[in-house]
């Protein structure tokens, strides 16, 4: 287990730095943090923290039960959690919460994209896998590696079946009703699953957005009408073709 901690942290840090520009900035400029440290205040705060830490350590240590219990008296085997294990899990869950919170701020300010929603789903997968690892550490009988593989395949299948483009279009239109801001050009790059929402936006927007969406819907209509071969039949495309016609 100790061998996978550093690679796991490295992968998590790499993913968060690619998804979070603020995190990536501070990670790339990590040495600049020490330029803004006041040595005098740092020494005073360090001494204060050490005093409080030793006091709390002594207080908690006083509750320690020195009575030793033999292994034969235990009905369930006790698993000892190493500090590095607890720190690794907590830091990972903290980095995931922070990245998810900041990504929500980006979406509220700049809108939703396929990549941002995909990052949300991937962070959800990381959270689930972290829980699996934690359970596997506590209960040795849980097959961690097999569980990770199965859950990853299930998540991949779910992502391929859910309508992400439709969700992105719907959330951006809701944001448009609230703020009056929308990237119409980006919405036209989404798949045909976004067409019903593009029609809704066209009917409830200004003239500039209507022109952009109408041009895109016309091109989609021409492409779909040219695909008349039964070998290319698709229920989703057929539904969109009827909607556009």
Count of helices?
11
Average the pLDDT over all residues and give the rounded result.
Answer: 79
Number of domains: 2
Radius of gyration, rounded?
27 Å
Task: Tell me the overall shape.
Answer: elongated
Helix amount, in percent? over 70%
For the secondary structure, the number of strands is 0
Element string (H = helix, E = strand): HHHHHHHHHHH
Largest sheet: none
Structural class by SSE content: mainly alpha
Distance between the termini: 59 Å
Runs with pLDDT <50, length 5+? 69-78
- Share of residues in strands: under 5%
Describe this structure in words.
The protein is mainly alpha-helical and 245 residues long. The protein folds into two domains: 2-161, no CATH class; 164-244, no CATH class. Helix content is 71%, strand content 0%. The protein has eleven helices and no strands. It has helices at residues 5-19, 21-28, 39-61, 83-110, 114-138, 144-161, 164-179, 184-187, 195-203, 207-225, 235-244. The chain is elongated, with a radius of gyration of 27 Å.
């Amino acid at each position: 287990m100790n061998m996978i901690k550093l690679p796991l942290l490295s992968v998590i840090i790499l993913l968060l730095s690619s998804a979070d520009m603020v995190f990536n900035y501070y990670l790339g400029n990590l040495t600049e943090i020490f330029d803004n440290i006041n040595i005098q205040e740092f020494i005073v705060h360090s001494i204060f923290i050490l005093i409080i830490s030793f006091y709390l350590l002594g207080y908690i240590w006083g509750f320690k039960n020195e009575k030793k219990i033999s292994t034969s008296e235990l009905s369930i085997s006790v698993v000892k959690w190493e500090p590095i294990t607890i720190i690794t899990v907590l830091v990972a869950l903290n980095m995931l919460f922070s990245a998810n919170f900041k990504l929500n701020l980006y979406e509220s300010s700049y809108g939703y994209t396929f990549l941002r929603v995909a990052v949300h789903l991937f962070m959800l997968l990381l959270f689930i896998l972290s829980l699996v690892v934690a359970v596997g550490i506590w209960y040795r009988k849980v097959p961690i590696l097999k569980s990770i593989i199965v859950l990853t395949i299930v998540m991949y299948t779910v992502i391929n079946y859910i309508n992400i483009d439709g969700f992105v279009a719907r959330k951006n239109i809701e944001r448009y009703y609230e703020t009056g801001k929308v990237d119409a050009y980006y919405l036209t790059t989404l798949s045909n699953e976004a067409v019903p929402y593009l029609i809704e936006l066209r009917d409830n927007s200004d003239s500039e957005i209507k022109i952009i969406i109408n041009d895109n819907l016309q091109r989609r209509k021409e492409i779909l009408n040219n695909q008349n071969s039964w070998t290319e039949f698709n229920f989703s495309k057929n539904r969109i073709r009827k909607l556009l016609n």
